[in-house]
Specification:
This protein has 287 residues and is α/β, with parallel strands linked by helices. The chain has a single domain (23-276), classed as Alpha-Beta Complex (Protein-Tyrosine Phosphatase, Chain A). The chain is built from 9 helices and 7 strands. The strands form 2 sheets. Strands 1-2-7-5-6 form a 5-stranded mixed beta sheet, with helices on both faces. Helix 7 runs antiparallel to helix 8 and helix 7 (227-239) packs parallel to helix 9. The chain is globular, with a radius of gyration of 18 Å.
Length: 287
Protein backbone atom coordinates (compact mmCIF):
# COMPACT_ATOMS: atom_id res chain seq x y z
CA UNK A 1 0.00 0.00 0.00
CA UNK A 2 1.42 3.42 -0.91
CA UNK A 3 2.75 5.26 2.11
CA UNK A 4 2.44 8.96 2.75
CA UNK A 5 5.09 9.53 5.41
CA UNK A 6 4.34 11.70 8.38
CA UNK A 7 6.69 14.68 8.87
CA UNK A 8 9.32 14.08 11.56
CA UNK A 9 7.56 16.27 14.08
CA UNK A 10 4.03 14.93 13.53
CA UNK A 11 4.08 12.35 16.32
CA UNK A 12 5.44 14.65 18.98
CA UNK A 13 3.71 17.96 18.44
CA UNK A 14 3.67 20.83 20.91
CA UNK A 15 2.33 20.53 24.47
CA UNK A 16 -1.33 21.36 25.01
CA UNK A 17 -1.90 24.94 26.03
CA UNK A 18 -5.10 25.94 27.74
CA UNK A 19 -4.82 29.70 28.22
CA UNK A 20 -4.23 32.21 25.41
CA UNK A 21 -2.19 34.36 27.79
CA UNK A 22 -0.32 31.70 29.75
CA UNK A 23 3.48 32.00 29.96
CA UNK A 24 3.83 28.60 28.29
CA UNK A 25 1.69 29.68 25.34
CA UNK A 26 3.69 32.86 24.92
CA UNK A 27 6.94 30.88 25.07
CA UNK A 28 5.76 28.43 22.42
CA UNK A 29 4.42 31.05 20.06
CA UNK A 30 7.55 33.15 20.46
CA UNK A 31 9.49 30.08 19.42
CA UNK A 32 7.45 29.83 16.25
CA UNK A 33 8.83 33.19 15.18
CA UNK A 34 12.29 31.60 14.89
CA UNK A 35 11.10 29.86 11.74
CA UNK A 36 12.09 31.86 8.65
CA UNK A 37 8.56 31.77 7.26
CA UNK A 38 7.19 32.80 10.65
CA UNK A 39 9.73 35.58 11.06
CA UNK A 40 8.75 38.62 13.07
CA UNK A 41 10.41 40.86 10.49
CA UNK A 42 7.73 42.73 8.61
CA UNK A 43 5.82 43.30 11.82
CA UNK A 44 2.14 42.58 12.09
CA UNK A 45 0.43 45.40 10.26
CA UNK A 46 -1.66 44.65 7.20
CA UNK A 47 -3.57 47.57 5.77
CA UNK A 48 -5.98 45.28 3.96
CA UNK A 49 -6.93 43.65 7.24
CA UNK A 50 -7.08 46.86 9.24
CA UNK A 51 -4.62 45.25 11.62
CA UNK A 52 -2.10 47.48 13.36
CA UNK A 53 -0.24 45.12 15.65
CA UNK A 54 2.60 46.87 17.41
CA UNK A 55 4.80 43.82 17.84
CA UNK A 56 5.38 40.24 16.77
CA UNK A 57 4.04 39.13 20.15
CA UNK A 58 0.61 40.45 19.20
CA UNK A 59 0.70 38.44 16.00
CA UNK A 60 1.81 35.31 17.81
CA UNK A 61 -1.13 35.57 20.20
CA UNK A 62 -3.36 36.32 17.24
CA UNK A 63 -2.26 33.10 15.57
CA UNK A 64 -3.49 31.08 18.54
CA UNK A 65 -6.75 33.00 18.56
CA UNK A 66 -7.29 32.19 14.88
CA UNK A 67 -6.92 28.47 15.55
CA UNK A 68 -9.39 28.68 18.42
CA UNK A 69 -11.87 30.64 16.29
CA UNK A 70 -11.60 28.03 13.53
CA UNK A 71 -12.53 25.31 16.00
CA UNK A 72 -15.68 27.22 16.92
CA UNK A 73 -16.54 27.94 13.27
CA UNK A 74 -16.02 24.35 12.16
CA UNK A 75 -18.84 22.54 13.97
CA UNK A 76 -19.45 19.22 12.24
CA UNK A 77 -18.50 18.15 8.71
CA UNK A 78 -19.89 20.64 6.21
CA UNK A 79 -20.49 18.94 2.83
CA UNK A 80 -20.58 22.33 1.09
CA UNK A 81 -16.88 22.72 1.91
CA UNK A 82 -15.92 19.32 0.49
CA UNK A 83 -14.42 19.60 -3.00
CA UNK A 84 -12.25 17.41 -5.19
CA UNK A 85 -8.86 19.01 -5.68
CA UNK A 86 -7.12 16.51 -7.96
CA UNK A 87 -7.15 12.99 -9.31
CA UNK A 88 -4.39 10.64 -10.31
CA UNK A 89 -3.05 10.51 -13.85
CA UNK A 90 -4.07 6.98 -14.78
CA UNK A 91 -4.66 5.98 -11.15
CA UNK A 92 -7.94 5.83 -9.18
CA UNK A 93 -6.66 7.97 -6.30
CA UNK A 94 -8.12 11.41 -5.61
CA UNK A 95 -7.51 14.42 -3.35
CA UNK A 96 -10.33 16.25 -1.61
CA UNK A 97 -10.44 19.21 0.75
CA UNK A 98 -12.88 20.12 3.51
CA UNK A 99 -13.31 20.96 7.16
CA UNK A 100 -12.72 18.74 10.20
CA UNK A 101 -15.06 15.72 10.12
CA UNK A 102 -15.49 15.78 13.89
CA UNK A 103 -18.58 16.44 16.00
CA UNK A 104 -19.26 15.89 19.70
CA UNK A 105 -15.89 14.25 20.17
CA UNK A 106 -16.46 11.69 17.40
CA UNK A 107 -14.80 11.25 14.01
CA UNK A 108 -17.56 11.37 11.35
CA UNK A 109 -16.33 8.58 9.10
CA UNK A 110 -19.68 7.68 7.51
CA UNK A 111 -20.58 11.32 6.90
CA UNK A 112 -17.17 11.94 5.31
CA UNK A 113 -17.46 8.97 2.96
CA UNK A 114 -20.96 10.08 1.95
CA UNK A 115 -19.75 13.63 1.31
CA UNK A 116 -16.84 12.43 -0.84
CA UNK A 117 -19.17 10.29 -2.94
CA UNK A 118 -21.67 13.13 -3.31
CA UNK A 119 -19.11 15.79 -4.25
CA UNK A 120 -16.91 13.69 -6.57
CA UNK A 121 -17.27 14.82 -10.22
CA UNK A 122 -17.35 11.15 -11.28
CA UNK A 123 -18.32 8.09 -9.20
CA UNK A 124 -15.76 6.87 -6.70
CA UNK A 125 -14.65 3.23 -6.61
CA UNK A 126 -16.94 0.92 -4.67
CA UNK A 127 -14.19 0.24 -2.16
CA UNK A 128 -11.36 2.52 -1.11
CA UNK A 129 -9.28 3.61 1.85
CA UNK A 130 -9.08 7.09 3.33
CA UNK A 131 -5.84 8.95 3.88
CA UNK A 132 -6.79 11.81 6.18
CA UNK A 133 -4.18 14.56 6.00
CA UNK A 134 -4.86 16.58 9.11
CA UNK A 135 -3.36 20.07 9.24
CA UNK A 136 -4.28 20.43 12.91
CA UNK A 137 -1.68 21.37 15.51
CA UNK A 138 -1.44 21.32 19.26
CA UNK A 139 -1.75 25.07 19.76
CA UNK A 140 -5.49 25.35 19.31
CA UNK A 141 -6.55 22.00 17.83
CA UNK A 142 -5.38 19.41 20.35
CA UNK A 143 -8.79 18.00 21.32
CA UNK A 144 -9.85 17.26 17.74
CA UNK A 145 -6.40 15.96 16.86
CA UNK A 146 -6.67 13.44 19.69
CA UNK A 147 -10.11 12.37 18.39
CA UNK A 148 -8.57 11.67 14.99
CA UNK A 149 -5.65 9.77 16.42
CA UNK A 150 -7.92 7.59 18.54
CA UNK A 151 -10.25 6.78 15.64
CA UNK A 152 -7.53 5.79 13.19
CA UNK A 153 -5.63 3.85 15.79
CA UNK A 154 -8.78 1.79 16.37
CA UNK A 155 -9.71 1.45 12.67
CA UNK A 156 -6.56 0.85 10.62
CA UNK A 157 -8.45 -1.17 7.98
CA UNK A 158 -10.35 1.97 6.94
CA UNK A 159 -7.23 3.95 6.12
CA UNK A 160 -4.76 6.08 8.03
CA UNK A 161 -4.06 9.49 9.49
CA UNK A 162 -1.19 11.76 8.51
CA UNK A 163 -0.76 14.76 10.80
CA UNK A 164 1.14 17.57 9.11
CA UNK A 165 0.59 20.76 11.16
CA UNK A 166 0.23 23.98 9.19
CA UNK A 167 0.73 27.38 10.83
CA UNK A 168 0.94 29.92 8.02
CA UNK A 169 3.30 32.86 8.44
CA UNK A 170 3.44 35.93 10.64
CA UNK A 171 5.14 38.17 8.09
CA UNK A 172 4.12 39.37 4.66
CA UNK A 173 7.00 38.55 2.28
CA UNK A 174 6.05 41.54 0.15
CA UNK A 175 7.07 43.80 3.06
CA UNK A 176 10.70 42.65 2.80
CA UNK A 177 13.40 43.73 0.36
CA UNK A 178 13.51 41.23 -2.50
CA UNK A 179 17.08 40.15 -1.70
CA UNK A 180 16.20 39.43 1.92
CA UNK A 181 13.01 37.64 0.93
CA UNK A 182 14.88 35.35 -1.46
CA UNK A 183 17.38 34.41 1.23
CA UNK A 184 14.56 33.47 3.60
CA UNK A 185 12.77 31.46 0.92
CA UNK A 186 15.69 29.04 0.83
CA UNK A 187 15.28 28.17 4.52
CA UNK A 188 12.66 25.68 5.69
CA UNK A 189 9.61 26.99 7.53
CA UNK A 190 7.42 25.17 10.00
CA UNK A 191 4.82 24.44 7.33
CA UNK A 192 7.20 22.33 5.24
CA UNK A 193 4.76 22.93 2.40
CA UNK A 194 6.94 21.51 -0.34
CA UNK A 195 7.35 18.22 1.51
CA UNK A 196 3.60 17.93 2.14
CA UNK A 197 2.63 18.65 -1.47
CA UNK A 198 5.26 16.30 -2.85
CA UNK A 199 4.00 13.47 -0.63
CA UNK A 200 0.37 14.06 -1.61
CA UNK A 201 1.20 14.19 -5.31
CA UNK A 202 3.40 11.08 -5.13
CA UNK A 203 0.60 9.08 -3.51
CA UNK A 204 -1.88 10.41 -6.05
CA UNK A 205 0.25 9.08 -8.91
CA UNK A 206 1.29 5.78 -7.29
CA UNK A 207 -0.10 2.58 -8.87
CA UNK A 208 -2.41 0.50 -6.72
CA UNK A 209 -0.40 -2.50 -5.53
CA UNK A 210 -1.76 -6.01 -5.92
CA UNK A 211 -4.42 -6.54 -3.30
CA UNK A 212 -4.49 -2.83 -2.44
CA UNK A 213 -7.28 -0.29 -2.64
CA UNK A 214 -7.63 3.18 -4.18
CA UNK A 215 -6.70 5.98 -1.81
CA UNK A 216 -9.01 8.93 -1.20
CA UNK A 217 -6.88 11.69 0.32
CA UNK A 218 -8.82 14.16 2.45
CA UNK A 219 -7.02 17.35 3.49
CA UNK A 220 -8.54 19.38 6.30
CA UNK A 221 -7.88 21.89 9.08
CA UNK A 222 -10.63 22.98 11.49
CA UNK A 223 -12.92 25.26 9.48
CA UNK A 224 -11.71 23.98 6.10
CA UNK A 225 -11.08 27.53 4.91
CA UNK A 226 -7.78 29.07 6.00
CA UNK A 227 -5.02 26.48 6.39
CA UNK A 228 -6.87 24.15 4.02
CA UNK A 229 -7.21 27.04 1.57
CA UNK A 230 -3.48 27.73 1.89
CA UNK A 231 -2.55 24.11 1.15
CA UNK A 232 -5.09 23.76 -1.68
CA UNK A 233 -3.97 26.96 -3.38
CA UNK A 234 -0.32 25.94 -3.00
CA UNK A 235 -1.09 22.62 -4.68
CA UNK A 236 -2.82 24.48 -7.51
CA UNK A 237 0.30 26.62 -8.01
CA UNK A 238 2.76 23.76 -7.91
CA UNK A 239 1.00 21.05 -9.89
CA UNK A 240 -1.91 22.55 -11.83
CA UNK A 241 -0.47 25.68 -13.38
CA UNK A 242 -2.75 28.10 -11.57
CA UNK A 243 -1.74 31.69 -11.03
CA UNK A 244 -1.38 33.06 -7.51
CA UNK A 245 -4.39 35.35 -7.94
CA UNK A 246 -6.57 32.58 -9.37
CA UNK A 247 -5.67 30.07 -6.65
CA UNK A 248 -6.19 32.62 -3.88
CA UNK A 249 -9.54 33.71 -5.30
CA UNK A 250 -10.72 30.10 -5.46
CA UNK A 251 -9.85 29.65 -1.79
CA UNK A 252 -11.72 32.84 -0.93
CA UNK A 253 -14.77 31.70 -2.89
CA UNK A 254 -14.76 28.30 -1.21
CA UNK A 255 -14.47 29.90 2.23
CA UNK A 256 -17.14 32.49 1.53
CA UNK A 257 -14.76 35.11 2.93
CA UNK A 258 -11.13 36.12 2.80
CA UNK A 259 -8.75 33.57 4.27
CA UNK A 260 -6.94 34.62 7.43
CA UNK A 261 -3.82 36.69 6.81
CA UNK A 262 -1.49 34.10 8.38
CA UNK A 263 -2.63 31.61 5.75
CA UNK A 264 -2.43 34.25 3.02
CA UNK A 265 1.10 35.09 4.08
CA UNK A 266 2.03 31.40 4.07
CA UNK A 267 0.64 31.06 0.55
CA UNK A 268 2.52 34.18 -0.52
CA UNK A 269 5.82 32.81 0.78
CA UNK A 270 5.29 29.57 -1.11
CA UNK A 271 4.28 31.40 -4.29
CA UNK A 272 7.41 33.56 -4.19
CA UNK A 273 9.56 30.50 -3.52
CA UNK A 274 8.13 28.63 -6.49
CA UNK A 275 8.40 31.68 -8.71
CA UNK A 276 11.96 32.51 -7.67
CA UNK A 277 13.42 29.01 -7.30
CA UNK A 278 10.83 26.42 -8.34
CA UNK A 279 10.80 27.21 -12.03
CA UNK A 280 7.00 27.66 -12.10
CA UNK A 281 6.25 30.22 -14.86
CA UNK A 282 2.48 30.48 -14.36
CA UNK A 283 2.32 32.10 -10.91
CA UNK A 284 2.08 35.67 -12.22
CA UNK A 285 1.83 38.77 -10.03
CA UNK A 286 1.88 38.23 -6.27
CA UNK A 287 0.26 41.00 -4.23
Amino acid sequence: MPHLPSPPYAKTGAPALTSPVSPRRRQLLAGLALSPWLAACGGGSDDNDGANASSAANDQNGLAEVFQAEAIESGSLNPSLVHQLAEGDGTPHRVFRGNAPIANGQFEYDALVSALRAKAPTPLPERFQLVVVSLLNSIGDRANLEVERAFWSANPSLGRLVNHPIFGALSDPASLPAAVRRQLERLPGLDRMGSLLNDIHALLQAPVPEGGLPQMIFVHCQAGKDRTGQVSASYRLRYQGRSYKNALEESRTTAGRDIERYSRYGLKWYAYDQQDFGGIPTIGPID
